[in-house]
Amino acid sequence: MKLTSRFALFGLLLVPSVFGQKKEILEMQRDILQMQDQVRSLQRSQDEKLAAIQVLLQQTLDAANKANTATAVLEASLRDKLKDQEKNLVVPVAGLGSKVDQMSSDFSSVRESVADLTSRLGKLQNQVADLSQAIRTLSAPPPPPGATPTAAGPPAGVSAEQLYNAAMRDRTSGNADLAIAQFKDYIQYFGSSDLAPNAQFYIGEIEYLRGDYTSALAAFDKLLEAYPDNAKTADALLLKGRALVKSGFKAEARTEFETLIKKFPSHENAAKAKMELRALAPAAPVRKKK
Known about the structure:
This protein is mainly alpha-helical.
């Protein structure tokens, strides 16, 4: 009896303990189920996001392929248009280049013509001045009769101005021999005057113009040696070079033209000397001075 009562009491004490453990198990099962649901939800969310990313990647690849295709088409179109433009521009540009070259040549010719005209005008002004001086000389009283030159000086009553103007007058009138004789007298009597280099130059110029290049070269050599720096040096170098060309001495002519360009780079004769150099053929025999 006592034993039975003891078992009954033990059973009553055991029931609450078992019931508590079962409740904890149920709560654990519920928590596990919730975690499983959360894992499934998270997995589903990740799958959806991955699927969306794959779709976006595919769309991006498709767009890139389309862009590449459009770029290739545009590049091919531009290349074709550039080829067409090149074909259309080659002929006009070539023609334009030819016209520019022609215009440059024409301009060079015009510039040379203007330079020649300027030189002629300068010479004409000199001639006008010489004529004015000659008129004043003619109105002066003539030298006394019987006046003869002396070894020490000019004829009595003959001044440097009179002799020079008379020579210039004969030069302008075409009296070449008389002009040369008077210029030589001027140099003999007034060789240290300011106009002596001019007189020596005109002797060479007259000889050059009438084709006596040997005498012209001798006159220019004398001028450049006796009067190396004067107003006629550039003109003498140019005419001397031309006389050498006409005489066949192109090597020496080249030297004279180069000296003119180097010594007087801004002179109008420098441009003429450059033209002469371009026209020269390879070097020819060298002249021997007399």
